[in-house]
Amino acid sequence: MNVKYMLSHRLRSLLPEPIKRILRAARLGLTAPEPYSPQIPQALLESCKVLSDRFVLLEYLPKNGRVAEIGTLKGDYARKIIDVCDPEELHLIDIDFSQLALDVSTNKIVKLHEGFSHKILDTFPENYFDWIYIDGDHTYEGVKRDISVAMKKVKPGGFLVFNDFARIASVGLGTFGVHRAVCEFSIEYNWQFTYFCLDGDALHDVALRKR
After folding, report:
1. What is the CATH number of the domain that holds 81?
2. Domain limits at 193?
3. Which long-range contacts (CB under 8 A, 24 or more apart) does 22-25 make?
4. Could you tell me the pTM of the whole model?
5. How far apart are CA 65 and CA 130, in angstroms?
6. Fewer beta carbons under 10 A from the terminal one: N or C of the chain?
């Protein structure tokens, strides 16, 4: 594990939110804009259903299965996954669990994996998960790394779900590479968009299904 990266992440997490936003804005001003995403062919969107938010999405995803969440922070969404989907196993993957709620971390179906998501995912057998929720490193390179491993770990008919499907969020949040990485993945591997979940800040979620 990259110790320097881990220490940097933990130090940033301790900073007050106004300071973090100033640092993000400065980084955005010094960073070249992300290239545009490729246009998604209509054939990959024909069966896509629009949902009101990512919490409604849980009602449509497989129940009683094996689930992984990459990037959980305090565990708020993990708690919803437990309540709605009642998974057999919920694997939480993060580089830091210091803020994770006790009721989530001690739940008997939850298994914690601390480290880099693509390396941890690679330890699981292929076709292991019913679905994986990806909310980790939002850079283009980070999302590509997670996809390259996660796509092999989901069962046929299973889902990869992506949080913050956006190219750029705001000056306060910086540039996201999620949109481009997911569009390129969908086109290259012919994964269909199945659910599009609306968000008030236009940081939508999307679920793609493995054929």
Report:
1. 3.40.50.150
2. 3-209
3. 24/171, 24/172, 24/173, 24/174, 25/171, 25/172, 25/174
4. 0.86
5. 6
6. C
